[in-house]
Design a protein that fits this description.
The complex is a heterodimer. Chain A is an all-beta fold. Helix content of chain A is about 0%, strand content about 55%. Chain A has no helices and eleven strands. In chain A, strands 2, 4, 5, 9, 10 and 11 form a six-stranded mixed sheet that branches. In chain A, strand 9 and strand 10 form a beta hairpin. Chain A is globular, with a radius of gyration of 13 Å. Chain B is mainly beta. In chain B, strand 6 and strand 7 form a beta hairpin. The radius of gyration of chain B is 13 Å and the shape is globular. The chains are: A mainly beta, B mainly beta. Chains A and B meet through strand 4, strand 5, strand 9 and strand 10 of A and strand 4, strand 5, strand 8 and strand 9 of B.
Chain lengths: ~110, ~110
Amino acid sequence: QKEVEQNSGPLSVPEGAIASLNCTYSDRGSQSFFWYRQYSGKSPELIMFIYSNGDKEDGRFTAQLNKASQYVSLLIRDSQPSDSATYLCAVTRNSGNTPLVFGKGTRLSVIA
Amino acid sequence: GAGVSQSPSNKVTEKGKDVELRCDPISGHTALYWYRQSLGQGLEFLIYFQGNSAPDKSGLPSDRFSAERTGGSVSTLTIQRTQQEDSAVYLCASSQSSTHEQYFGPGTRLTVT
């Protein structure tokens, strides 16, 4: 069964620190990887996607992918209280438009 | 531009009634997906439409659930004879044909009493 695993948290970090969120997946055929942020009572918001091994940076966010280890992570630099949310990791196997398989999310709390 | 829209935002219904949930995808997006999220649970895939191809219904939990997409745009998810376990937030997402990124609507919170 294809699964995406995340630590449920909560992960608490002080304001200004680096938050590191991790995700592992079981399907070696996975090709595309996404991070969504979900505030309480809101729908998921896409913040990063990565398709190739290595790092991808966008502002304060860096996504890291290691397909050999079946591991993807999200780093948030200079964490702010507004970053407090649940972060969902999602993967998909095929090229083209296919459903995402989601992890259950990690709750991040940034303490001012 | 306009994002994915869904209606209604909230729906309370009695057990056994039928409900219809609507999704209007981002203009130009050919792929449309339905997911649901139960309290404290992850997102569960229900069904997806890609252009004029037959929909992938592999995630529908029972034959009480059905969906259609008219004119390659608006989609309606129908739940017949609702049960209390159908209570959840139903989320719609869309994506362009050539990319994988899915963008979500605000969701419909369904409560079955």
